[in-house]
Amino acid sequence: MVSNVKSYTLIGVNAVEVLVQVDASRGMPGTIVVGLPDSAVKESRERVKAAIVNSGYPFPAKKIVINLAPADVKKEGTIYDLPISIGILVAQNIVSGKRLNEYLIAGELGLKGEIRKVKGALAAAILAKQKDYRGIILPAENAEEASLISGIEIIPIKHLSEAVAFLNGDIQIEPITKNLIENNFSFTIDMSDIAGQYHAKRAVEIAAAGGHNILFVGPPGSGKTMLSRRIPTILPPMTEKEIIETTQIYSAAGMLNGIITERPYRAPHHTVSDVALIGGGSSIKPGEVSLAHNGVLFLDEFPEFKRSALEALRQPIEDGEVTISRISGSVTFPAKFMLVAAMNPCPCGFYGFEDGVHYCTCSPAQVKRYRSKVSGPILDRIDIHVSLPAVKPEELAKMEKGESSEKIRKRVTKAHERQKERFKKLSFSFNGKMDSKAIKKFCKLTEQAEEILNRAVKTYALSARAYNRILKLSLTIADLDGSDVIQPKHIIETLGFRENISTN
């Protein structure tokens, strides 16, 4: 007798249906798994046998062939323990097969029959809804994430015997209802913690409001890391769609410890490998750029990252996704993030920031070599460059606290709403993603503003690239100001970043 149990596999962050077929027939007792299984799937034979026996059910002394279809898709992980055990019990008529077509089933088994969490449960719930299944039977530990998807039954299971009783109709298990998403800003840090640095904080607000990437340049101790850590506190609350997307990525990576309701902040060390930053590996997993999806990716000591890793950032910065190609195929991960980079001006850290106590000891050649570690094309994708001088300790006590994150967040949220309305028919939502065609269409200037900009172009010999960048930033400042057109004051404020944005 052949039994069929529906399960899934992960390709990237998405689930693909897998049919687990179990055939128990006469022959030399043993278990064979076919269908491109990895070592973890092959090892399930011993776990399944022990779990079935220790749960009080007989294990057949027959030749058992387990086929995972489609056979040309690699199957990884411990997802199939529960469906395989159910298939074996169906083949012995211990479990009724009447309800098997209604549910996707997944779960890792312990030797006593207990069921442990698996990766990708949220993606599986999405798949179950797309395929019009009644629901999904999965470990109780995965129920919370799966409950983000409404319209299907989420059946939490803690033990193999529970799954058997449910499928036979002997017990009723109350499905987990859709989880109510609550965005509570419980940050222990706040933008008001930072004394001074008003120019830098304004630049951060503009970057957050328009989806612009930003680079901090300053000596050690100037507050680059402090500022970056507080950027998530001024970003708007995540939408339900963003929460599902981000949670799905962490679930697929096996890093989920609860639903992701706060924007991610990822800060990999500069020794990070290309694979860890971008994604990949023998079993392709999302990298830091995807784990920062809908949040902030902070790269401190920017020039110290490997050149190949920085160059690999081009695609995700430009497209909002990253494609990992291998012989077996390609996987695309979402990667829409705000890039925040920080660097010293030179190897010693004080070039251009001498304060009477600290002096630069680097030669011009050393400074040039250090800065050339970051290529022009990467710098070209960073709209705002901010110089961040250190604040003297004796001045800190005299400085008043700045605005709270809550106040800044309200302005940023309003700017986001204006941009989403503006770009609702386009593939992007923020000013920072505009191309030259969109800039020409949406960046409307007053006559006086246009005159100031044209004068700046002639005076500073700005390139077309710098010209477009000024327009994008000016439009974001106009959005923060609630203005439908770019006014002279918006251009003037943007020109305050002239030295940094006119990288010709």
TrEMBL record:
Residues 210-392 form the AAA+ ATPase domain. It comes from Desulfurobacterium indicum. Belongs to the Mg-chelatase subunits D/I family. ComM subfamily. It holds the Pfam family ChlI. GO terms for molecular function: ATP binding. InterPro entries: AAA+_ATPase (IPR003593), CHLI-like (IPR045006), Mg_chelat-rel (IPR004482), Mg_chelat-rel_C (IPR025158), Mg_chelatse_chII-like_cat_dom (IPR000523), P-loop_NTPase (IPR027417), Ribosomal_Su5_D2-typ_SF (IPR020568), Ribsml_uS5_D2-typ_fold_subgr (IPR014721). This is Magnesium chelatase.
